[in-house]
Amino acid sequence: MKKPKDENSKSRILEAATTLFAQKGFDGTSIREICKKANVNLCMISYYWGGKQELYNGIIENLLEKQIEYSKGFLDLNKNPKDMSIDECTSLLTTIADKFVDFFYTNISSDLIVLLLKEQQRPDFIVKSPVLDYMRSVVARVLNKEPDDRLVIFKTLFLLSQVNSPRILPAFSLRQLGQKDFSKEDIKIIKENVKLYINAVIKESLHEN
């Protein structure tokens, strides 16, 4: 099949599909609706993904690809945290968290957040994110434990919640502020709060060891 001339069609489809899936769910959204919203030919879905389910999966895959590409600027996923000192991992963890704030507040749409929250409720929904897995390994090194340790899993989760909760819970953030979006000052406060949590985890770890 000849390659489409419109190089932006794939991103338009992903954006339209994310919005419609978030609003109407998988079953309530048709391929025709997605193509109409994206202003592309119906055959584009088959060209890029094959079908609606593959397109749905492609939204998550696209997010993970963006996450990996973004992390290349500050992270070497091939470097084993176990081979690093705790001080190195502590510094790296702070950097990762700081960059995660930037990524989450600039690269993820509100529609994608809604979609991800819905997916989280499915018992068969499992996402393997190399970047998040690496972050958990760094947390494990800081705590001097294994990545699959119960405490490490929860500490990593709590750290991520410090990053994303203001966006996930807009009724307790943006609406309280009377804003439609987060300002630079808001992002600064979020980053400072994340650092406070990391420092608390480190302090707790030192006390236990």
- Fourth CATH level, the homologous superfamily of the largest domain: Tetracycline Repressor, domain 2
Q: Count the helices. How many?
A: 10
Q: Give the overall average pLDDT.
A: 91
Q: Strand fraction band?
A: under 5%
Verbal overview:
- The structure is a single chain.
- Residues 1-5 have low confidence and may be disordered.
- The chain has helices at residues 9-24, 31-38, 43-48, 52-71, 86-106, 110-120, 130-143, 150-168, 174-177, 184-208.
- It is globular, with a radius of gyration of 19 Å.
- It contains 10 helices and no strands.
- It folds into 2 domains: 1-60, Arc Repressor Mutant, subunit A (Orthogonal Bundle); 72-208, Tetracycline Repressor, domain 2.
Brief digest:
The protein has 209 residues and is mainly alpha-helical.
Helices and strands in order:
Elements lengths: L8 H16 L6 H8 L4 H6 L3 H20 L14 H21 L3 H11 L9 H14 L6 H19 L5 H4 L6 H25 L1
Helix pairs in contact: 1-2, 1-4, 1-6, 5-7, 5-8, 5-10, 7-8, 8-10
